[in-house]
Amino acid sequence: MDIIVAIILGIVEGITEFIPVSSTGHMILTSRLMGYDDQSSVMNSFEIVIQLGAILAIAWVYRFRILNLLGLQKDSQTSRAIGKPAGKLNLIHILLGIVPALAVGYIFKDHIKSLFSASTVLWALVVGGIFMIFAEWYNKRYARVSAEDIDQISYTQAFLIGIFQCISVLWPGFSRSGSTISGGMISGVSYRASADFSFLIAVPIMIAVSGYELLDSYKDMNSDTLLAFAIGFVVSFIVAYLVVLAFLKLIQKVQLRHFAYYRFVLAAVFWIFIMN
């Protein structure tokens, strides 16, 4: 893996990890376009490393909120964090949001790995986009929004978001953030609060998944790949940090359906260039 490829994939990971367009899908499709085998052990290890860079970025954005959840930060000090000061949100909400996906991922881990293909991702982009449009429509038309900010999310809503997250675990390319944000909006959580909760629960679940995968893949990090891995990690961190900040600032202007339209276009383009 050369440096240019590491930079490109680091940028792709950073841009797509936390917005509802499927980072897994983009990584698979980008690797295919560049002629790389996205199922090789080195590529799998590299993807884990740059994903850790993106995780670190989101952890930094929500650092005050995370410290508060861990009891290491006073409520008054969280006012500088993204969103409102911590109130009702606690570790039980986080556990309810991540346990279903972790359980499903562990039980079906062997089956899930067999689903990583370009065709699977293309269909996931389309179906996931339709689901996102439905969630936005349902939230505005029928859902009684009871959680305008993250601290108003109930245990039931946190658990429902966790259940919806299982879709992305079982279907590569569906998008973790797309399923959780949509699930939140269907459950009566506002768009902004759904995004905040989605980003926050991404930290523990991605650390758990990446850590588990890294135990099998760390041997691929040697002197020949170390530089490329390090560059990809740094690029992913920087890009993910900037993208999340921009997304949170523009969240009222960039609705969920806009990402769905992008997914449709992406699926069509890659269907032409990859599947034919």
UniProtKB/TrEMBL annotation:
<keyword id="KW-1133">Transmembrane helix</keyword>
<protein>
    <recommendedName>
        <fullName>Undecaprenyl-diphosphatase</fullName>
        <ecNumber>3.6.1.27</ecNumber>
    </recommendedName>
</protein>
<feature type="transmembrane region" description="Helical">
    <location>
        <begin position="41"/>
        <end position="62"/>
    </location>
</feature>
<feature type="transmembrane region" description="Helical">
    <location>
        <begin position="6"/>
        <end position="29"/>
    </location>
</feature>
<keyword id="KW-0812">Transmembrane</keyword>
<keyword id="KW-1003">Cell membrane</keyword>
<feature type="transmembrane region" description="Helical">
    <location>
        <begin position="89"/>
        <end position="108"/>
    </location>
</feature>
<feature type="transmembrane region" description="Helical">
    <location>
        <begin position="227"/>
        <end position="248"/>
    </location>
</feature>
<comment type="function">
    <text>Catalyzes the dephosphorylation of undecaprenyl diphosphate (UPP). Confers resistance to bacitracin.</text>
</comment>
<dbReference type="Pfam" id="PF02673">
    <property type="entry name" value="BacA"/>
</dbReference>
<keyword id="KW-0046">Antibiotic resistance</keyword>
<keyword id="KW-0133">Cell shape</keyword>
<keyword id="KW-0378">Hydrolase</keyword>
<comment type="similarity">
    <text>Belongs to the UppP family.</text>
</comment>
<keyword id="KW-0573">Peptidoglycan synthesis</keyword>
<feature type="transmembrane region" description="Helical">
    <location>
        <begin position="115"/>
        <end position="135"/>
    </location>
</feature>
<feature type="transmembrane region" description="Helical">
    <location>
        <begin position="260"/>
        <end position="275"/>
    </location>
</feature>
<dbReference type="InterPro" id="IPR003824">
    <property type="entry name" value="UppP"/>
</dbReference>
<feature type="transmembrane region" description="Helical">
    <location>
        <begin position="155"/>
        <end position="174"/>
    </location>
</feature>
<keyword id="KW-0472">Membrane</keyword>
<keyword id="KW-0961">Cell wall biogenesis/degradation</keyword>
<feature type="transmembrane region" description="Helical">
    <location>
        <begin position="195"/>
        <end position="215"/>
    </location>
</feature>
